């Protein structure tokens, strides 16, 4: 138990009367990337939102390092070291890049302290601090998201389809950032993805969500290839 | 409409009994009351009728109005002004009453025009109703000796009938208006009001003219209030600006809140009880009395939002022997010769979109979309999240949404039509989320959807709902036809989806916009919906635009697929073509070069 | 003509000061505070009490602000917080609160008119025109307040958090911003501003239990018409306040009294966004 | 109800053996809440004092007086409740009312219906007539003359500017003022009104300054509008002769220096140096001690009104309403304001005092005008 950063047990949640996530149990260890794969509408985003506290679960538990946080509100989760990078409405488009980054940290003092450490990872973002975030290109916005996530010094990141619409070079860049975050900083990642190659290139383990349930899971090694899994995920 | 029968419905029977009991009470009461109480009650009964209208506006329809006193004041001043300045007699009295009704109706219509339009916020509407009595009082003040300014008008000739007569007039006015109100809120139209309160937007998308209904309701409520005001002035022989003031308007709201909003009788009794009590107590402790009502008001709003009436009726229900509630059972019949079945709309395609774009500030969500939807065609719209699919739906169903572009529905340009007008052109839209009208039953929801075509009855409930064949099919396929008297909040997710679809179909659209109609459904449910959709296009000639993530589902039913990406159409073709396309694969898998678009 | 210009500028300043507390609450909390008038009154009594205690009138405004913040925090916790999901009920509850507050003042201080001393009296000559010194001072304070509020929202941490909550509350919460706390602080700040505004305008007026009421509807209109932006509020105060002064001076003060309400309602009817995009 | 009367009767017999008879009930509808609540306590005290004094001298026709006080909330609706309660529930014999015009107008139909003599004791805009009502306070005819005359003679004022609140009293007073000024050869260079709740006089003050009049006369509603106007005039540096119809001694005092130099006309000023007034002031102080309210232009007519009613009952020999109404025009009351007889078309000729506010807020009597006639108020009741 104790080496798991996050443990879910029999988590069920949804909206109104519809169960979108059903009996999901999983755990993530420190410094591990767990890829949750599945098509659109299979409950992946809802799973992240439930962990984060935006959606209250119908049943089951969310344990963050031995602490039951099933009913914790989102800001408490964020302050306990969980960084959520949602898929939609992710930035404040009318705020400057700098303000968006500042919102990743609780205090401006910490923000200034941590900024230099982040700089080498995202050189292009930091050149545009005064620009409005909405004017960044899609790829730059994704980078800004990662940057904002990392500057909060999270222990766990919940990342929702970060590669969507990214060009290959950017996807590689993103993979690099995530691997460094895991290996150098010991950050655990729950990675919701449709981009199989990307997910499998960095994840330690994977699981496949279908209609809200885990239908398959395993360790990512050379045996697991995207072709095998794509049966579940086929376009 | 069913032929009227001699037997009364249960609702009408209850209303009749209640009305008779009320009239009896009014008839005998003066003989048991002393002069003082009769005097106090005559005024209070008239005010209670106004409170009843506040409850219909606020409690049932969700229009928080501070301005109902203005119409009361208009009625009172119509009486005062006519009798003071023009003449007195039966003719003048009727003329004054007509003046009261007419000017109240005109002012209410103007207020409605100001306060209710598609996209106006409820807070804005409330402020307008607050401004109304303030402006009106100002006008009265500046009327000099014509309106009597601050002093009001007094001592004008009036009918000095005995107190009993006035009591009977006031009492029967209250009883009759309350009976009418009671029937109204229990009629099909009453359900429409509740629907507007619970989900104004969705009502508009079912083709219900929300703003017009609100305005009309305001006009009728204003007319009732003005008659009450007229009688008040004629009885008390006094009119003063405070009768039109917002203080009285707020008091009406307070009584409604304390009595229990949307209970109709609660506010009426609260008005009678509290106003009588305050006649007693405010003399003894004027400041404390106001303070206590203020505190009670805040307390009730925060802790007992439904007021005191539910507490009392709850107690009553526990005390009396349990009666079997007979659920309201509706008959579903097939609508005769519906538009859908007629099929033909000429040669023009049902849906034509030219150069559509939508910008939010600097963000361009849709740009230069051209699209034609033919009859008998199921057009799948796919694309990654954020591609602008839902925005596209919104632009088709609300003329005010798009930034540029032209849109034709059945060859009619939609210009800047409001959603209910677009529904009238033949567009039906279902939504992603399924929060329908929580407290309405399935049959009430279906009736709601037929509002545009079948209209609604003001004071009764029809037990027959005529639905087009496809709606019936959906009801059967999902088993909803067995649950017609169930409240929608108790339905399963799949059933809600089915109901949503059945409702949209009940509006008899020629273009059907479906936003992920199968999200969160089980496989058999999906298949059932899929076959209904296929049937809709093949047999009923509908043009369906379907947003869907599940490509298997799309493949099974769709003729043509449009891929939307970053607000523009990336490609168009059959499902097979699209699936085979590397471009689309790339978009979905995330390999796509940004430059491609 | 010159004094009319001053009338317009100072009226706009007063309107801005009076409406700013309402605006910040509406902006962040999407709540129209119907107790705003009562908060203005509370500020008036704070100024009166400060004067009665012999403290320099210059301190009455900050003192009123502090009292207002404390009171606002209590009100938010007890009355407002349970009603976040019921915005129309929140209107009613704050309205009821307004009644309660003014009755408490009536019970404590009586219905009579009280006075707060003015820190500045008489006139000063500006650009060759004798004009009321305190009105000019209020306008200067209004401009400073506008700068301070714009600065608060665009430069400070709290402002950043508040803007984040305004634009996208869920995202803000996901970033660790306790939106409940932001709302509470906002309500405190809004009521503090309202009380301070009450104390500020009191030397021009007088104090009685209903002194805030006449300001209420005009403030609502100004705030609704300017969206959530202090520059727009400044603009709206200038345009609507200016029209009011012009109509009052050249046509009739009685029509002038209705100008803001009627004009704002018409503008909002024709363009529901008002000045917010201006 | 009958039973209750009997019980009350028994209680009286047992409890107050000095008075074997049933008390005469006098209803006092007054604005305990609302705009008039500021002066209401002084009015109630004056009424209580009058009743106590009369009862101490053996009552009226051997019967004690008894007060029934009801709140009229300073408005029409409240007044209807108050009059309903007094006339039909408490069944009072007479009513002495210091009220707003709106409240009085609302009460009159009830008084007519219940046939109860009413003495109205508040100054007002004039010409309110009812077979059941008498008025013992001033009307415009009595108020306007002293101030305008003073401005014309002392300051040689020709151009007058008039400011008012937009309500019946404000308009009524200024209408009469305009007529009076013009009849005396002056001109009115401006007449401006603000809505009754309004307290921002900026625009009107600008109009005033550009009109450049010799004198200013204001008739606002009492309370906030009046004091804010005075304050804003002072801070705008207006220092022409200034007559104010709405100011009273208490307000002048509370305004401190702001009211200095303001002229007012009144039928009662507490600093009047007459034996009757000294006695009255002492009696108030003795009865109410520290809680005593300063008597004023509204409470003293109330005191007189109760004496007038008592005298009329005494003269009529019963509380029979029409007899009392007839007697009311014939009795003279010697009160703090001097001798007052309501024989001028239901109104009374009054001695008016022209006062000027001193720097400490107290009011100095500048001049007095003996027995100013109320003029043609209710010609239908002319004798």
TrEMBL record, chain A:
Family of this protein: Belongs to the ABC transporter superfamily.
Single annotated GO MF: ATP hydrolysis activity
Record-linked PANTHER family: HIGH-AFFINITY BRANCHED-CHAIN AMINO ACID TRANSPORT ATP-BINDING PROTEIN LIVF
Annotated SUPFAM superfamilies: P-loop containing nucleoside triphosphate hydrolases
Gene3D superfamilies referenced in this protein's UniProt entry, alphabetically: P-loop containing nucleotide triphosphate hydrolases
Species annotation: Marinobacter vinifirmus
Domain of life: Bacteria
SMART domains named in the record: AAA
Transmembrane parts of this sequence: none
Keyword Transport annotated: yes
GO biological process: L-amino acid transport
Cross-referenced PROSITE patterns: ABC_TRANSPORTER_1, ABC_TRANSPORTER_2
UniProt keyword annotations, A-Z: Amino-acid transport, ATP-binding, Nucleotide-binding, Transport
Domain ABC transporter: 6-233
The protein's name: ABC transporter ATP-binding protein
TrEMBL record, chain B:
InterPro entries referenced in this protein's UniProt entry, alphabetically: AAA+_ATPase, ABC_AA/LPS_Transport, ABC_transp_permease, ABC_transporter-like_ATP-bd, LivM-like, P-loop_NTPase
Pfam families: ABC_tran, BPD_transp_2
Chief location of this protein within or outside the cell: membrane
Source taxon at top rank: Bacteria
Compartments reported by the entry: Cell inner membrane
Topology class, membrane: Multi-pass membrane protein
UniProt keyword annotations, A-Z: ATP-binding, Cell membrane, Membrane, Nucleotide-binding, Transmembrane, Transmembrane helix, Transport
Gene Ontology CC terms, in alphabetical order: plasma membrane
GO molecular function, one term: ATP binding
Domain ABC transporter: 351-591
TM helices/strands, residue ranges: 12-33, 39-58, 70-88, 94-116, 123-145, 165-185, 217-240, 252-275, 287-308
Name listed for the protein in its UniProt record: Branched-chain amino acid ABC transporter substrate-binding protein
Organism in which the protein naturally occurs: Marinobacter vinifirmus
TrEMBL record, chain C:
Membrane topology, record value: Multi-pass membrane protein
GO molecular function, one term: transmembrane transporter activity
Keyword list, A-Z: Amino-acid transport, Cell membrane, Membrane, Transmembrane, Transmembrane helix, Transport
Localization of this protein: Cell inner membrane
Superkingdom of origin: Bacteria
UniProt KW ATP-binding keyword: no
Membrane spanning stretches: 6-27, 34-55, 61-80, 92-113, 133-155, 184-205, 217-238, 245-268
Pfam families registered for this protein in UniProt: BPD_transp_2 (PF02653)
Cross-referenced InterPro entries: ABC_transp_permease, BCAA_transport_permease
Main location: membrane
Biological process (GO), any one: amino acid transport
GO cellular component, one term: plasma membrane
Family membership: Belongs to the binding-protein-dependent transport system permease family. LivHM subfamily.
Name of the protein in question: Branched-chain amino acid ABC transporter permease
Automatic annotation (TrEMBL), chain D:
Leucine-binding protein domain segment(s): 23-361
GO biological process per UniProt: amino acid transport
Pfam hit, one: Peripla_BP_6
Superkingdom field: Bacteria
Signal peptide boundaries: 1-20
Keywords tagged on the record: Amino-acid transport, Signal, Transport
Family recorded in the similarity comment: Belongs to the leucine-binding protein family.
Name the UniProt record assigns to this protein: Amino acid ABC transporter
């Amino acid at each position: 138990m104790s080496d798991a950063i996050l443990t879910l047990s029999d988590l069920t949640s949804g909206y109104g009367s519809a169960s979108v996530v059903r009996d999901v149990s999983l755990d993530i260890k420190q410094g591990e990337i767990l890829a949750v794969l599945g098509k659109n509408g299979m409950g992946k985003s809802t799973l992240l939102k439930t962990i984060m506290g935006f959606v209250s679960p119908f049943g089951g538990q969310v344990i963050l390092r031995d602490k039951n946080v099933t009913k914790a509100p989102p800001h408490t989760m964020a302050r306990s070291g969980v960084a959520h990078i949602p898929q939609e409405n992710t930035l404040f488009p009318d705020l400057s890049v700098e303000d968006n980054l500042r919102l990743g940290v609780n205090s401006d003092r910490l923000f200034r302290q941590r900024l230099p450490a982040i700089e080498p990872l995202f050189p292009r973002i930091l050149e545009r601090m005064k620009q409005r975030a909405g004017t960044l290109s899609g790829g730059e916005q994704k980078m800004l998201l990662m940057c904002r996530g990392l500057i909060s010094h999270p222990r766990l990141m919940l990342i929702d389809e970060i590669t969507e619409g990214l060009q290959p070079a950017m996807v590689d860049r993103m993979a690099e950032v995530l691997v460094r975050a895991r290996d150098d900083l010991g950050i655990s990642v729950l990675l919701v993805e449709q981009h199989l190659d990307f997910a499998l290139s960095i994840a330690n383990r994977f699981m496949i969500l279908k209609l809200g349930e885990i239908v398959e899971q395993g360790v990512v090694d050379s045996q697991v290839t995207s072709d095998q899994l794509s049966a579940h995920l086929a376009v | 409409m069913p032929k009227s029968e001699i037997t009364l419905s249960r609702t009408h029977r209850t209303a009749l009994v209640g009305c008779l009991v009320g009239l009896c009470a009014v008839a005998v009461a003066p003989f048991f009351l002393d002069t003082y109480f009769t005097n106090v009650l005559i005024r209070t009964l008239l005010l209670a009728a106004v409170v009843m209208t506040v409850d219909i506006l606020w409690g049932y329809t969700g229009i928080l109005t501070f301005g109902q006193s203005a119409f009361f004041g208009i009625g009172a001043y119509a009486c005062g002004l006519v009798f003071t300045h023009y003449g007195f007699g039966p003719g003048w009295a009727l003329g004054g009453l007509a003046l009261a009704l007419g000017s109240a109706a005109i002012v209410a219509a103007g207020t409605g025009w100001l306060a209710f339009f598609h996209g106006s916020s409820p807070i804005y509407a409330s402020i307008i109703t607050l401004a109304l009595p303030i402006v009106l009082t100002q006008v009265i003040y500046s009327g000099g000796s014509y309106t009597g300014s601050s002093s009001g008008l007094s001592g004008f000739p009036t009918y000095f009938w005995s107190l009993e007569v006035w009591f009977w007039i006031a009492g029967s006015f209250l009883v009759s208006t309350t009976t009418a109100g009671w029937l109204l809120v229990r009629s099909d139209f009453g359900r429409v009001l509740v629907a507007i309160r619970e989900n104004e937007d969705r009502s508009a998308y079912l083709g219900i003219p929300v703003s017009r209904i609100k305005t009309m309701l305001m006009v009728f409520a204003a007319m009732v209030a003005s008659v009450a005001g007229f009688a008040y002035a004629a009885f008390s022989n006094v009119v003063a600006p405070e009768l039109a003031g917002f203080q009285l308007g707020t008091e009406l709201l307070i009584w409604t809140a304390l009595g229990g909003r949307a209970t109709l009788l609660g506010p009426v009794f609260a008005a009678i009880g509290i106003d009588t009590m305050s006649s007693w107590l405010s003399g003894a402790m004027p400041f404390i009395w106001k303070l206590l009502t203020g505190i009670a008001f805040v307390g009730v709003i925060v802790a007992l939002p439904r007021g005191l009436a539910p507490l009392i009726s709850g107690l009553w229900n526990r005390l009396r022997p349990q009666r079997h509630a007979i659920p309201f059972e509706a008959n579903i019949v097939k609508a005769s010769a519906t538009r859908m079945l007629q099929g033909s709309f000429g040669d023009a395609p049902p849906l034509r979109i030219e150069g559509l774009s939508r910008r939010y500030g600097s963000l361009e969500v849709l740009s230069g979309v051209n699209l034609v939807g033919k009859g008998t065609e199921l057009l799948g719209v796919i694309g990654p999240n954020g591609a602008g699919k839902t925005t596209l739906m919104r632009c088709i169903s609300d003329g005010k949404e798009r930034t540029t572009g032209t849109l034709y529905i059945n060859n009619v340009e939609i210009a800047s039509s409001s959603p209910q007008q677009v529904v009238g052109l033949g567009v039906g839209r279902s939504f992603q989320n399924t929060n329908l009208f929580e407290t309405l039953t399935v049959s009430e929801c279906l009736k709601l959807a037929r509002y545009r075509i079948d209209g609604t009855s003001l004071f009764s409930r029809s037990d027959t709902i005529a639905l087009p064949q496809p709606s019936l099919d959906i009801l059967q396929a999902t088993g909803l036809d067995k649950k017609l008297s169930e409240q929608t909040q108790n339905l399963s997710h799949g059933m809600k989806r089915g109901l949503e679809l059945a409702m949209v179909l009940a509006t008899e659209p020629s273009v059907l916009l479906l936003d992920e109609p199968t999200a969160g459904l089980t496989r058999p449910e999906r298949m059932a919906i899929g076959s209904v959709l296929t049937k809709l296009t093949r047999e009923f000639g509908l043009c369906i635009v379907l947003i869907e993530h599940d490509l298997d589902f799309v493949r099974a039913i769709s003729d043509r697929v449009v891929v939307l990406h970053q607000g523009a159409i990336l490609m168009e073709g059959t499902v097979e073509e699209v699936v085979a396309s590397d471009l689309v694969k790339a978009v979905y898998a995330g390999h796509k070069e940004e430059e491609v678009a | 003509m010159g004094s009319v210009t001053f009338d317009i500028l100072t009226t706009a300043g007063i309107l801005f000061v009076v409406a700013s507390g309402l605006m910040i609450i509406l902006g962040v909390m999407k709540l129209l505070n119907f107790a705003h008038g009562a908060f203005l009154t509370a500020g008036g009594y704070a100024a009166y009490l400060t004067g009665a205690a012999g403290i320099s009138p210059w301190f009455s405004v900050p003192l009123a602000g502090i009292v207002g913040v404390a009171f606002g925090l209590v009100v938010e916790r007890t009355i407002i917080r349970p009603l976040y999901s019921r915005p129309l009920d929140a209107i009613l509850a704050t309205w009821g609160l307004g009644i309660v507050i003014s009755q408490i003042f009536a019970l404590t201080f009586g219905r009579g008119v009280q006075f707060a001393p003015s820190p500045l009296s008489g006139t000063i000559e500006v650009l060759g025109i004798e004009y009321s010194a305190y009105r000019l001072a209020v306008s200067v304070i209004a401009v400073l307040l506008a700068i301070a509020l714009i600065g608060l929202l665009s430069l400070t941490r709290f402002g950043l958090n508040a803007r984040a909550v305004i634009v996208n509350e869920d995202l803000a919460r996901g970033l660790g911003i306790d939106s409940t706390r932001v709302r509470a602080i906002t309500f405190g700040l809004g009521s503090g501003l309202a009380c301070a505004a009450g104390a500020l305008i009191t030397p021009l007026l007088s104090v009685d239990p209903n002194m805030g009421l006449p300001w209420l509807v005009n403030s609502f209109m100004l705030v609704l018409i300017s969206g959530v932006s202090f520059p727009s509020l400044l603009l709206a105060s200038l345009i609507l306040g200016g029209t009011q002064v012009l109509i009052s001076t050249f046509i009739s003060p009685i029509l002038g009294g209705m100008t803001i309400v009627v004009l704002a309602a018409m503008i909002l009817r024709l363009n529901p966004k008002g000045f917010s995009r201006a | 109800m009958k039973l209750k009367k009997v019980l009350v009767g028994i209680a009286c017999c047992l409890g107050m053996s000095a008075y074997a008879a049933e008390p005469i009930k006098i209803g006092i509808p007054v604005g305990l809440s609302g705009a008039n609540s500021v002066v209401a306590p002084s009015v109630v005290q004056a009424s209580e004092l009058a009743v106590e004094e009369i009862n101490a001298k053996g009552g009226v026709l051997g019967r004690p007086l008894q007060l029934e006080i009801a709140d009229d909330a300073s408005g029409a609706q409240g007044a209807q409740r108050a009059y309903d309660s007094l006339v039909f529930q408490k069944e009072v014999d007479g009513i002495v009312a210091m009220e707003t015009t709106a409240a009085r107008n609302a009460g009159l139909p009830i008084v007519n219906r219940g046939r109860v003599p009413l003495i109205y004791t508040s100054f007002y805009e004039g010409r309110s007539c009812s077979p059941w009502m008498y008025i013992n306070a001033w009307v415009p005819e009595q108020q306007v003359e002293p101030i305008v005359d003073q401005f014309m003679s002392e300051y040689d004022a020709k151009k007058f500017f008039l400011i008012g609140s937009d309500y019946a009293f404000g308009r009524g007073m200024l209408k009469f003022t305009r007529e009076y000024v013009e009849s005396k050869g002056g001109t009115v260079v401006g007449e401006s009104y603000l809505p009754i709740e309004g307290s921002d006089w900026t625009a009107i003050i600008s109009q005033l300054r550009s009109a450049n009049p010799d004198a200013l006369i204001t008739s606002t509603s009492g309370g906030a509008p009046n004091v804010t106007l005075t304050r804003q005039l002072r801070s705008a540096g207006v220092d022409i002769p200034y007559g104010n119809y709405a100011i009273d001694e208490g307000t002048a005092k509370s305004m401190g220096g702001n009211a200095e130099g303001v002229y007012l006309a009144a039928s009662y000023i507490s600093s009047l140096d007459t034996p009757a007034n000294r006695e009255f002031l002492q009696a108030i102080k003795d009865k109410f001690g520290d809680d005593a309210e300063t008597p004023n232009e509204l409470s003293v007519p109330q005191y007189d009104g109760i004496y007038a009613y008592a005298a009329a009952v005494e003269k009529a020999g019963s509380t029979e309403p029409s007899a009392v109404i007839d007697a009311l025009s014939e009795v003279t009351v010697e009160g703090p304001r001097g001798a007052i007889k309501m024989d001028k078309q239901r109104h009374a000729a009054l001695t008016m005092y022209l006062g000027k506010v001193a720097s400490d807020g107290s009011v100095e009597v500048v001049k007095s005008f003996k027995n100013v006639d109320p003029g043609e108020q209710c010609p239908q009741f002319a004798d």
